[in-house]
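Support reply, case 0932

Customer input (verbatim):
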Amino acid sequence: KAVVSTQSTQSQQNRSFLSMSNPTPDSLCVFFRKSYERGVVEGLHEDYIYVRSVDTGLRHHVPRSNVYRMAEQFRKVSCYARRCTLSEIQPFDGTDWDSDCLRIFGQIRHTNITTLG
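Our regenerated output:
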């Protein structure tokens, strides 16, 4: 005699209901890899959705079945990561960055507005 867990069935139904049926770029979502994370849809593939974690800044391709809708009100919650790179930039003298440069870069990472000039 087989016994089916209604809790397990209910959990599967909830996940199915929350799945993103028609995701679009810039849609807010929750995705699951090793844990649940907030994300923003960056691209679409037949089997995967490319998402950027708003809390780590990392980009992932996640199976569509592991990407879920998230209410837009959560877009107002501050992100914990800001994507930032310095590409092909080196100190003039070819040595390590000095403490002033490292301090300024630290400020850039922790502020919303950066003015260079």
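We compared this against your earlier run and they match. Two observations from our side: Helices lie at 6-18, 99-109. Residues 6-18 form the longest helix (13 residues). Please reopen the case if you see a mismatch on your end.
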